[in-house]
Amino acid sequence: MSEQIILSVEHLRQSFAIGRERLEVIRDVNLQVRPGERLAIVGASGQGKSTLMHLMGGLERPSGGVVRILGQEVYKLSESARSRLRNQSVGFVYQLHRLLPEFTALENVLLPLLIRRVPRRSVEPWGKEILTRVGLSERLDHKPGMLSGGERQRVALARALVTRPALLLADEPTGNLDSESAESVHQLMLDLNQELGTALVIVTHEPALAAHMEHVLRLQDGVLQPLDAVH
Ligand SMILES: Nc1ncnc2c1ncn2[C@@H]1O[C@H](COP(=O)(O)OP(=O)(O)OP(=O)(O)O)[C@@H](O)[C@H]1O
Fold first, then answer.
1. Is 29 among the domain residues?
2. Which SUPFAM superfamilies has this protein been placed in (predicted)?
3. Tens digit of pLDDT for each residue in 7-62?
């Protein structure tokens, strides 16, 4: 069990039709992520990092290749089985928080559990605990509009981790934050990686965060290549 591969990607390809041309964004990506592993993906703007994250998270069907999450071939599943797998095994954090504005911080965090039709009272204590863990015990009833950028991003992180996913996919999660808020969100991801054993795959331009990762890969010309430690 401990050696079960969390995420496996084989010969992944993605291209987009632009008029009569095809834009080959992902040409041949191969990757394996083990439980609790920490991996950073770097690369210049437009090289396909967000596209790759969507493909790996089961959000966008590739032109070719295979993505497996916990051994299940993601794009062979029905739409509903794929959403279930995502809900159970993958947490996402985006550059923009994507919280629902009309819900409180606690409600936003509980949402991934409530859509499983779990009664709210049975999950509320854990929702409060994880918000406390990200330093927001005093902000449970705040709506996103009443929170700072860093606080919103911490709510987004709590929401991504409330299901205790095996894998967290984070796409420049602190790209819009000041350095102090960014540092606190980085530390949290690393702490939760240690405490919950969540594997991390993070697209980041921030050397300070990449330095905490076991592997740093560069996406360039549609393929991933190992990069020596970023300093
Ligand atoms: N649905 C789409 N249709 C057509 N082209 C697309 C589509 N999605 C992405 N692209 C193109 O694919 C390329 C890679 O985009 P992507 O957002 O994955 O890059 P990125 O590395 O994440 O960039 P950044 O660092 O600027 O966020 C871009 O040239 C983009 O225009």
1. yes
2. P-loop containing nucleoside triphosphate hydrolases
3. 999 999 999 999 999 999 999 999 999 999 999 999 999 999 999 999 999 999 99
The domain total for the chain is 1
Nearest-angstrom CA–CA distance, 46 and 188: 28
Q: State the pTM of this model.
A: 0.91
**Helix (DSSP H) and strand (DSSP E) numbers for the chain:** 7, 10
What count of other Cβ atoms lies within 10 Å of the Cβ of residue 129? 12
Q: Please state the atom number of ligand 1 nearest to the C-alpha of residue 47.
A: 21
Distance from the alpha carbon of residue 77 to the mean position of ligand 1, in angstroms: 25
Q: For residue 187, what is the domain's CATH number?
A: 3.40.50.300
Tell me how far the alpha carbon of residue 26 is from its chain's centroid. Answer: 19
Residue 230 has pLDDT above 50, yes or no: no
List the one residue out of 93, 152, 159 whose CA is nearest residue 123: 159
Q: What residues does ligand 1 touch, defined as CB less than 6 Å away?
A: 16, 23, 25, 43, 45-51
Whether 43 maps to a domain, the answer reads: yes
Residue 209 inside a domain? The answer is: yes
Residue 82 lies in a domain: yes
The closest residue, in CA terms, to atom 7 on ligand 1 is 16
With the most atoms of ligand 1 within 8 angstroms of its CB, the residue from 24, 45, 49, 59 to mutate is 49
47 alpha carbon to ligand 1 midpoint, in Å? 7
